[in-house]
Amino acid sequence: MQLAIVLFERLTALDAIGPYEVLSRVPGLEVVFVGERAGSVRTEVGSLGLSVDATYAEVPRPDVILVPGGPGQNDHMTDGPMRRWLRDADATSTWTTSVCTGSLILAAAGLLDGRRATSHWLSLDGLAAFGAIPAEERVVRDGKYVTAAGVSAGIDMALTMVGEMAGATVAQAVQLGIEYDPHPPYRAGSPRTAPPEVVAVVRGVRDSILN
Amino acid sequence: MQLAIVLFERLTALDAIGPYEVLSRVPGLEVVFVGERAGSVRTEVGSLGLSVDATYAEVPRPDVILVPGGPGQNDHMTDGPMRRWLRDADATSTWTTSVCTGSLILAAAGLLDGRRATSHWLSLDGLAAFGAIPAEERVVRDGKYVTAAGVSAGIDMALTMVGEMAGATVAQAVQLGIEYDPHPPYRAGSPRTAPPEVVAVVRGVRDSILN
Question: Which end of chain B is more exposed for a tag (fewer CB within 10 A), N or C?
Fold first, then answer.
């Protein structure tokens, strides 16, 4: 089994590395970081470089595809090398997955037409614009398509996938191995639980970037 | 303010990237990935390369030090470039922190003598051997020293630190930005909650590596 994690400039690091940390621990699953060209990409805030180890052409038929999100997602919403590879690879994949705004890339490529999917809570509307059915859930599965909500949700998605791929005992062993017993010091991880003024701050930052 | 995240061969990726994703969002906090030599290191399972952007000599006085763990931790338990830098940098740091078995490196360098600290649940005994007082908690603060339990605990530690450094509103905005509203599909993230057979599997894997 081969998992291809797509890297591109200005991705959000944890979108890719959360699932990587979980899925790389599954026996028999080879992980390859794939991108338009070998070398490295810089993440969202620029202070982290991640290595691209294989080009799209070198990984034509991964069993599992994972597309992270981040500000750089906007560069891949039209036809180009990533979209062409995604469509080809999706034709034979067992699972096609995304974290955060990675689902907008899948949707824009036409892979989520009429399917339930999720994204970062600030980007759910965007999914509908590309023909998907937005679902306000942390992990959404529709057939072979699995999408996760914002950034950290990729960890939950990956554990769900390990359960499907390798069974509950392996998934639980991975969870215990990474000591994933979360205790956030605040209850602000969702717009449903965060204080309204915090939601306004985050919406404002987003709006100031987009406008 | 400058945060130095230490990279070394065979670190555990999420130990470094979980806190990075949180702390890189703090206004005014510059993040630099530091290591023995510029270039890149490969993580635990070898399929991810992370860029080292500055050598130890180039980052003599970071305000915050973060040491991740992973199998490569074993290479840094004796005197060498990392230990010498840690001791010097710690002399002027505001915070000195670790995730997972990174605390063993800090302890072996003599920085946790007589201090409460935590580590990956499988490595708590090791802390005591190096003079620290092991605490079975997810995030432990003793003075300027903050240590996190295994791998994913670095996210909780980082949010706790943001609250201390920049206040609760910023910390909550970061939490909402990365949609950290965890819903693990299993309750296996701690040896206290995981099924006994799962605990035995993970202990067995560790023992098979060590013996």
Answer: C
- Residue A78 exposure: Cα atoms within 13 Å on the Cβ side: 1
Any idea what DSSP says for residue B121? G
Question: Given B99, B100, B104, B165, which residue is catalytic?
Answer: B100
> Which position has the token pair 């946790």?
B112
Contacts of A110 (CB under 8 A, 6+ apart): A87, A131
Q: Which pLDDT score is estimated for B208?
A: 58
CA distance A37 to A8: 9
Do A38 and A52 meet the contact criterion of CB atoms below 8 Å apart?
Answer: yes
Residue B41 contacts A, CB cutoff 8 Å: no
Is residue B5 scored above 90 in pLDDT?
yes
- State the burial class of residue B204 (Cβ atoms within 10 Å of its Cβ: 0-12, 13-18, 19+): exposed
In sequence order, what E strands does B39-177 have?
Answer: 39-42, 49-52, 54-55, 64-67, 95-99, 116-117, 133-134, 139-142, 145-148
DSSP assignment of B151-194, as one string? Answer: TTHHHHHHHHHHHHHH-HHHHHHHHHHTT-----SSS-SSTTTS
Residue at token pair 């919406």: A203
Residue type, B80: G
Contact indicator for B161, B95 with CB cutoff of 8 Å: yes
**Chain A contact for B176 (CB, 8 A cutoff):** yes
pLDDT for res B196? 96
Give the largest CA-CA distance in chain B.
47
> Half-sphere exposure of B129 toward its Cβ, with a 13 Å CA cutoff?
10
In the 8-state DSSP scheme, what is residue B208? Answer: H
B40/A30 touch (CB, cutoff 8 Å), yes or no: no
Other Cβ atoms within 10 Å of B33 Cβ, number: 24
Residue A206 has pLDDT above 70, yes or no: no
Structure tokens at B101: 């078995």
Q: In 3-state terms, what secondary structure has residue A33?
A: strand
